[in-house]
UniProtKB/TrEMBL annotation, chain B:
This is NADH-quinone oxidoreductase subunit A. The chain crosses the membrane at residues 20-44, 74-97, 103-124. It comes from Pseudodesulfovibrio hydrargyri. It is an enzyme of class 7 (translocase). Keywords: Cell membrane, Membrane, NAD, Oxidoreductase, Quinone, Translocase, Transmembrane, Transmembrane helix, Transport, Ubiquinone.
Amino acid sequence: MNGDENAARALPDKAGLGDVILNWCQANSLWPLFFGLSCCFVEQATVFTGLYDIARFGAEVLRGSPRQADLLVVSGTVFKKAAPMVKRVYEQMPRPKWVISMGSCANTGGMYDVYSVVQGVDQIIPVDVYVTGCPPRPEALLHGLITLQDMIRQKSRPLRPVLNLDGGHLGGRDDILVPGVTKDRDTRGPGMAGIPARGTSVTPPVFAGSRSDEMWTPPAPKLSFTPAHDALREALAARFGEPSAWHETVVDMPTVTVPAQRLVEVLDFLKHEAPIRFERLEDITAVDETARKVRPEHDFTAIYTLTSLSSVEYLRVRVPVGADLELPSATPVWPSANWYECEIWDLFGIRFTGHPGLRRLIMPEEWQGHPLRKGDPQRATEMAPYLAEDARREQPEDAVRLLEKAHAAPPARREFVLNIGPHHYSTHGLVRFILELYGEEIVDMTTDIGYHHRGVEKIAEHQSWHQFIPYTDRLDYLSGAANNLTYLLAVEKLCGVAVPQRAQCVRVMLAEFYRLSNHLLWLGTMVQDLGMITPVFHTFREREQILDIMEAITGARLHPAWLRIGGLAMDLPDGWDKLVRDFVTIFPKRVAGYRRMITGNPIVRARVKGIGRLSLENAVDHGISGANLRACGSTRDLRKVAPYSGYEQYDFDIPTRDGGDCLARFEVRFEEMVQSNRIIAQCLEWMPSGRFMADDYRYCIPDKRDTLRDIESLIHHFINATRGPKVPAGEAYAATEAPRGEQGFYVVSDGGNMPYRLHMRSPGYASVQALPLMTIGHTIADFIAIMGSLDYIAPDLDR
Amino acid sequence: MPTSPEYMSTGFNAWDPSVFSLIVFALLAAGLVTALLTLSVVLTRRRGEGEKGRPYECGVIPSGSARPSYPAPFWLVAVFFLLFDVEAVYVVSWAVSFSRMTWAAWGQITFFIGVLLLGLFWVWRKGGLEWGMTRKR
C-alpha cells in the first residue's frame, strides 16, 4: 500500500461527518474499467461472474469506457506500442481515479523483460495498489479491491477539495515512479545497486562458454523419404534443374533450398503443378545466421513452410538472403504472405520486392532497428527506460495513414474513419481495427496489431529449452497446456524422445480440457458481444469447474506449465478420476442447455446467419485453420489427419459446416465441445498405468524418486534443471490442433542448450489477416459478430 | 332553468386538487433539477486537463471528420417509420368512426391515405426500405 504519504496513512481523525460519508460513498461504489491487456485480464473478467461477484466488494459491473470509470485495473503486460493508449485511457478518466496494477507484468514487466515491454506501468501512470502473481487468482484481485477500499476510507478530509478549499485529499495518486530514483529497475532485484552490472570494468561482458559444447548428444533423428517425396524431388529437378537443392538429412519434413531469383516460380509450381500440391502457405519466417556455431555464407535465411491439404504433407523451402537483403514477394501466389512478409521486414529488416504495402506491422513506427536480429538488444533493461514522456511522444499512427499504407493505390475520397480498438470492449485483446464507413457500411478496413507483442521469440533465444515452457502457456492464454504440447512435440521431434503412453494420455486429456475452457469463454464472450449477457455467467461456471480440475492436477489455473520434455512434471494426483468423472457426466447436459439458450434464440441466429461468409477456397488461400476452416466445409483436423500424442486411439467425430458464415463457425465450436468431452471420457476410462516421464534421461528432467535412488538420474536432473539439455543441431516444425486452429512451433538448434531460433505459427494471425474478406460490405454491428466468431486472441496473434 | 351540458356543471377549475398537485409536482421537479445543476456547477473543480477534453476513441487519437457521410440507412428507416406511423393514427380513427362518417369525410380521408400510400410505394421503389448494404464501389 503506498498512497500519498501524508494523506493515505493518516487516520481520518480530523475528518468530519461529511468526510466520512464521502469516503464511504467512494469506497463502496468503485466502477472499474474493462481494460484488457493480457492473461490477468481473463482473471479480472472472472471476478465479474457469479462465482466471485465483484459487486459484493463495492465494485459494480465493469465499465466499457474511461468516462464511466473511477478505477483502472491495469491487468497484464504493458507494451511500448500500447503504452500511449494506456496513458490516454487513464487521463480520460474523471477524478478521483484510482489504479490497481495487476500481475507481475504490469508491476515490473514480469517474466517478459524483453525489448518491447514497459518495465512496470508505474513508470507512466501512478499506481495505488499492486496485486502480485502471474496471473493473480481472482481472489487476489478481490483482495486488492478491499485494500483499495481501506485506503479510500482512510483518506483525510476529502470534502475540502470537493468544496474547493485548501488541503485534504480526494484520492488517487498524482506521482509516477522514476527508474533509479523511486523505482528499482535492476533485473537482479533490489539491493544490487552497489554491485556493478556485467560488462563493466569489474566483470567480463559475457559468461564463459557454455559447458553444453563439451557434451555429446546423438544426432537428430532422420526422416525417411517416401516414394511420393521422391516423385516430388524428381519433378522439381526436372523443372528447375540444379538450383533446387534437396537436403538429405532432415528431421521432420522434406527441405529444399531455392535461390531467391527462382523463389516465386518454385512456389507457384508447388502450389499448382507439383505431384504433391501444396495448397496452403503455412508460414514464412527468417533466421539470422550471424551467430551460428557453424556459420553459412549468407546472413539471413528465409524459411517457407508449405502444407498440402490433399495429401497431408509439409515442405520446407529455404531461401538464402543475399547481401542486398531483398527477396521477391510471395503475395502473387498466396495473399496470406502479406503479413508474414511485413513481419519479416519489421523484425529482421529483409525487404520484399513487389509487396503491396510493406510496413512495420508489429513494432511501433518510430522503432529503431529490427529486434529479432542477433545484434539488437534483448532485454528492455538494456535499453533506456520507457517513461511518460515517451508515451506522450510515441503515439499510435493516424488511422487514415494506416488505411493508406494498407493499399497500393489510395481511393479518391476517404469516408468516415472509425477505430475499433486497441482498447475496446469486444476486440478480445489489444488489437486495432480501422474501419472506413459509408453510412453504416464497412467499405474498407485494415488491422493494426503489435499492441501485444511480447517478443517471446527473442526471449526463447536466451532461455534453456525447459525454461521456455512457461512462456508457451502465455502465448494463447486461454489454452494453457495445449500450447506446451505443440512446443514440446517440436523439441521431442528434434531430440527423438519417445513419450510413455500414460503421459500421452494425460497430455491429450489436458489439451482437451483446455479446449473446452477456451470454447466456453469464447461462447460466453461472443454472445455477450452480441448483447446477450446471461450465457457468460453460465459458461464461466463450467469453466471454473474445469480450472478447478486443472488446479487439482497441475497446481495452476491458467498457466500450468506442467508438461515436460519426455512427459509430465508429476504423476496424476489421487482422486483425479472422480473430479473428471463428475465433469464428463454433467457437461453434455450443460451444452444442451446452452444450445437451447443461445441457438434457440431467434435474435442471435439473425445476428450470425449469413454474416461474414468465407469461401473454402479463400480460407485455404489465406491459411485459415481450425474451426474457422471446418466451418467452410473442410474436414481437416490435425487430430485425425496427422494424429499426434496417440489421438488415433480415440473415437471422436469432426464436426463441419458448409456455410462459412458466423453461424457455421458458431455451430462447429458448439459440437466440438461435445466431442472433446467424449475424448476426455475415453481418457478417463483408458488411462494407462506406467511411467509419466520417458526413462531416457538425456533430455528429460528425471522423476524425482529416481534421483534419490541412483547417481546417474541425479546428475541428469542437475544438468537438465540448471543449464538445460543439449539439443542436437537441426530444425523441426510441429503443429497441433490447438483450440483456435493449427498452432505450430518451428525450432532451430545449433547444438546448444538454448534454441538458436524459435518461431510460432499462430492460427489467429491468418484469421485476422483475412478479416477484410469477411467484413467489407457488412455493417459495424456485423463486424462485432464476425470478430467474435473468429476466436482469435492478441498474444497468439502478436506473440 | 336551462339544463347545461354535463361538462359545464363540473366546470374547469384551476384550483381543483388534481391540477394543483400537478403544478406543485412540476415546481418541485424543476427545483430539484435547478438545485442539482447549481450544486454541480458550484462544486465541480474545473481543471484544464487536455486529454479529458478529447473524444474517446478506443485509446488512440481520433482522425478524420466526425461527420458521417450522407447515406445513413438507419436514420432513413427511422424517419420513414415515424412518417408512416402517423398514418396509422388516421387509419385507426377512420376505422372506428366509419359508421358515423359522411361520404364527403370518407372521400377526404381515403384520398389522404391514398396519397400517403403512393408515397410509401415510391419510397419502396426507390429502395428506401432496403435495410441492406448498397455496393458503392
